[in-house]
Amino acid sequence: MKIYKYIAILPLYAFNIHSETIDFNQLYRSWGIDIATINTTQGALFWKRELMPNKSCTSCYTNDLKKNGAHVRTKKLIKPMSPKINQKKVNRYQKK
Q: How far lies 22's CA from each of 18, 25, 28, in Å?
């Protein structure tokens, strides 16, 4: 097989490696959060917590979930997170 055929197949393998499903419960536990016992106060603290230096959820989404946000680097508009304002957010996370 010539080299260009290997190069054409390589992205398929790369996609396969990164297509695993994410266990969000395990991810949250690694951040020190137990979603079974979380309450609104803990949620608010987590929302403001810096997971990377100088970066938290509020960096892009703002403190008010009813307002538009903007991506820190690209400045791309982010629609409000509040399901009362943005119905698409509700439908996106509902089980089908």
A: 10, 9, 11
* CB-based contact 56:69 (threshold 8 Å): no
State CA 43 to chain mean position distance. 15
Nearest partner of 47 among 2, 81, 12, judged by Cα:
81
Cα atoms in the Cβ-side hemisphere of radius 13 Å centred on 77: 4
Q: Two tokens at 86? A: 């943005």
Strand partners, 55: 52
**What pTM was computed for the model?**
0.48
Cα(45)–Cα(26) distance, integer angstroms: 19
| pLDDT tens digits, 41-80 | 877 888 888 878 888 888 888 888 889 999 988 999 988 8
Q: 46 near 33, Cβ under 8 Å?
A: yes
